[in-house]
User: Fold this.
Amino acid sequence: MGHRTMQGREIDMEKLMRQNELMPAVGNMKVNARGDELGPGGQIIRKREEVVAEYYENNPKSKLNQAVADTPAPAPEVKPTPAPASKKNTEE
Assistant:
């Protein structure tokens, strides 16, 4: 699925991202568009997956670890008790 520009041209953004994912990103972080760390000459030092895995290992309060550790146990099933029947006073 593509996107349409204001001039009516079709652009496939996913194809464009895949073509440029190894290009160095603009900025001072020394990464490419995928998030891989780059060394001298633009060589990949560490892949994005390694960087993310190291982050979650070194940060015990990260959301990923909290989601697993803080998952509450399922509550016990409680069956509702029927309300007592009320007596109706009928006047004749």
User: Anything to note?
Assistant: The helical segments are 13-20, 48-58, 63-69.
